[in-house]
Amino acid sequence: MRAGLAALTSRGRSFLASGIAALLCAVLLGEHDLLRIGILIVTLPLLAALVVARTRYRLSCARRLDPNRAEVGAEATVTLRLENVTRLPTGLLLIEDTVPYALGARPRFVLDRVEPHGVREIDYRVRSDLRGRFPIGPLSVRITDPFGLVELARGFTISDTLVVMPQVVPLPHVRLSGEWTGGGDSRTRSVAAAGDDDVAPREYRQGDDLRRVHWRSTARYGELMVRREEQQWQSRGALLLDTRRIAHRGEGPRSSFEIAVSAAASIGVHLAHEGLGLRLVTDQGAEHLTDTGLSHALLDTLAVVRQSQTRTLDFGINALRQGGGDGLIVAVLGGLRPEEVTPLARLRHGSVTGVAVLLDTAVWEDPGAPESEQYQQTRAVLAGYGWRVARLPAGTSIASVWPEAAARAGRAHVGGVS
Predict the structure, then answer these.
(1) Whether this model's pTM surpasses 0.90
(2) Mean pLDDT of all residues in the chain?
(3) CA–CA separation, 338 vs 377, rounded Å?
(4) How confident is the model at residue 86 (pLDDT cuts 50, 70, 90)?
(5) Which residues contact residue 251 at a Cβ distance below 8 angstroms, ignoring those fewer than 6 apart?
(6) 149 and 42 in contact (C-beta within 8 Å)?
(7) DSSP helix, strand, coil percent of the chain (3-state; round to 5)
(8) Same domain as 262, residue 156
(9) Is 70 exceeded by the pLDDT of residue 260?
(10) CB 267, CB 388: distance < 8 Å
(11) What is the pLDDT of residues 7-31, one digit of tens each?
C-alpha cells in the first residue's frame, strides 16, 4: 500500500486532497451529502493504489536490432518482445524505451491489455547522422489504473548496442597488388612455375603423391624428397588516417574529418575484400582491431574514432615504420605543410606502394575552387618520393578519385631520393 501511495499521479494526489478537504468541510458544516462525496473521492485513489500495488503479474522482455550495425543515415529496426509470464491479465501498460538523443526521440507505446502468457511485439525505427556506439535500453514499463490516478514504474536491465558506422562507398578495382609483399595463408602461388632452383623440398611423408618427388634433391640428400607445390602468401598493408583537429575543416557530417573517415572505411573494406591483411594507424599510433573479421573490426574502430589534439603525424609514422613488412601504404590525409609530409613520404621505398588521398582542406568550403597552393606543395613532395596521389575535394565521392591510385607517380627527385 505504501508503494501504491508513493505512485499516485498528480491527478491521484489532487483527488485525495479534494476528498480530505470535502470530509473536513462536511464535519464542520454538518453536511451528510458532502460527507458521502468526500468519502467517495478519497476512496477512489486509495483503491486504485491498492490494486496497482498488489499486481503480481510478471513480464519478460527481449530486444532485437536489425541490423545491429548500420551506416550513417541508414535506419535500423528495433523489435521489442514483451511476454506476460503469469496467469493474470495485465492492466494498462505504458512502454518507454531508452535511446540516446542522437537516435531520435524516446519511443513510447500504450498496451491496453496482455492476456495470460500473451506476447506482444513492438517495432520502431532509429537512425543517426553521427557515428558511434549507442546503447539502446533499458526498457521501462509504467503500470497505471484506468482513471490515471496511480502510476507504478518498473524497469528492465537488459540493453543492446547499435553501432553506427561511417558510410562505405563501393570502389572500382584498381591494380595495386603488383607491389604487395608479406606472408600468411590467404593467397597461394605456384612455385613449380618458378623453376627447380626455387623449389623448397621437404622429406617424403606417408601418403605423399609420388608424382611430387623431387629427384634432384633426393639425389643430393640421399633420401626421398618431395616438392612443395604451393607456398602460402598474404599481402600486407597499412591504412593511415589523419585525425588531427588542426588538419581538418568544417563541422558535422560534411566536415573534412567525416569525409576522411568515410574514405578510410571505403578503402579499408575494399582492400580487405581483395584479400589484403590490413592494419589501421592514426596520428596517435596503431589501432587495435578486434578478432571479428577485418571489415567488421575496421568499421567498428572507425565508428568511434574522434579528432585528436595531436599536432604532428610522428606517432603514426613511427607506427608505420615499426610495423614493417607493409607492401602497401594508403594514407588519408588532411591539411599538411611540406615539411610535415616529408617524413611520411620517405616511408615509400623499394617495392612499397604508397597511395595518398589528400583532402584539400585549404579550400574545403568551396567545392569548385582550384587546387590550393598547400595541396600542390604537398602533392609535389609525395610524388617526388614515388607516391600515387589522389585529390579529394569537398562534395566529391572517394569512388570517383580512387582510380587515380593506379596512376604511377613521377620519378622527380626530392632531397636526393627518387
Answers:
(1) no
(2) 82
(3) 6
(4) confident
(5) none
(6) no
(7) 35, 25, 40
(8) no
(9) yes
(10) no
(11) 787 888 888 899 899 899 988 888 8
Instruction: For residues 269 and 396, state if they share a domain.
Output: yes
Q: Do the beta carbons of residue 104 and residue 127 sit within 8 Å?
A: yes
HSE of 120, CA atoms in CB hemisphere, 13 A = 16
Buried b (16+ CB within 10 A) or exposed e, 251-281: eeeebbbbbbbbbbbbbbbbbbeeebbbbbb
**Which of 120, 150, 165 is the endpoint of a domain?**
165
Of all residues in the chain, the percent with pLDDT exceeding 90 is 38
Q: Are 120 and 139 in contact (CB under 8 A)?
A: no
Burial 376-392 (b: 16+ CB within 10 A, else e): eebbebbbbbbbbbbbb
How far is the C-alpha of 88 from the C-alpha of 57, rounded, in Å? 6
Kindly state the DSSP code that residue 236 receives in the 8-state scheme. Answer: E
Distances (CA, A) of 109 to 49, 99, 124: 22, 14, 10
Beta bridge partners of 109: 95
Contact 346, 352 (CB under 8 A): no
Domain limits at 107? Answer: 59-165
Same domain, 158 and 297: no
Can you tell me the distance from the alpha carbon of 397 to that of 393, in angstroms, rounded to the nearest whole number? 9
Q: Give dist(CA 84, CA 370) in Å, integer.
A: 65
Helix (H, G, I), strand (E, B) or coil at 223: coil
Rounded Cα distance between 179 and 353, Å, is: 6
